Amino acid sequence: MDEQFEFLKLVVARLDAARIPYMLTGSLALAIYALPRMTRDIDLVIDGDEQRVAALVAAFALDSYVSAEAASTAMREHGMFNVIHLATLLKADFIVLAPQAYERAKFARRQAVDLDGFSAMVIAPEDLVLSKLLWGRGAGSARQEEDVRALLEQNPGLDWSYLEAWAERLELTDLIARLRSS
User: Fold this and answer.
1) What is the distance between the alpha carbons of residues 57 and 66, in angstroms, rounded to a whole number?
2) Which of 118, 115, 178, 170 is nearest to 152 (CA)?
3) Distances, alpha carbon 114 to alpha carbons 9, 99, 120, 155, in Å
4) Count of alpha carbons within 13 Å of 132, Cβ hemisphere only?
5) Whether pLDDT at 116 is above 70
6) d(C-alpha 92, C-alpha 90), whole Å
């Protein structure tokens, strides 16, 4: 985990230097709020466009593999590309911020979290709950529901009015009600 933590610091520093807004999500965000889980990659949502591709590729070119073509395509299509750190073979998955209202709302709610001496922008816990429910619904993943249960247990101060409003818009009301009561 130390190696992964150092890679996260490197990624955050380079995104900040390139002035590319980002949000940590996925398993590492889950570890911050609730439940550490073994993972070999870092998931980040970035707010980028094709003009920022060159800056992003240059930020990682010296010690990492990154495909300028894949990054450009991802920026254009709101897709995903990755950066692989050559010394450690750790991977950062960059998910380009999608234009949908919920994706924009959760990105706007990201929060600075102190991670043992450096600050990183992290998805809010309510949005991690909703995102995991969306991912689980699409993939039929019981693991996502387990993660949501852990988030609900470990974060008693969640903003339930926000959660319920988006759950209704995202058609997750029954699922979140069932998980909340279990």
Assistant:
1) 6
2) 178
3) 11, 28, 7, 17
4) 27
5) yes
6) 7
